[in-house]
Input
Amino acid sequence: MKQPQLKSRLTLLAALAVATALTACGKQRDDELTAGQRLDNAVADAKQAANDTKRDAQKAMNDAEMSASRAADATARVSTDMTITAKVNAALVADDKLKATQINVDTREGQVTLTGKAPDAQSRERATTLASAVDGVKHVNNQLIVDASKNG
Output
């Protein structure tokens, strides 16, 4: 909350407290507080309410900033994973032996998992090498199965 708004709200709260106290002055009460004491109490209550409002607004703003930061981080991670997946797929398609295979690439937080079939053991290892060479890849979990029907 901006300072001018806070000051104007505090002024409004103080004015309301004074008006309440003045109204109370016109009524007879059984309590032993003087009009000045009631006014002091009303002003103190108004100040406390303003402080509570300010604290609540600051907490809400901090919570909103934290949520926005978390959302931005999650979006960046997903975007990075998508980029890694696209680059690994491009590298696999560019390889003569692997371009005709159907290899699925899944990336989560830089961890790449390869699933599907490879035509031979060398191609399976080549897929790991190609995926590992992509910027941002932290680890490659190669679950490719060598397709024996292609070798015979």
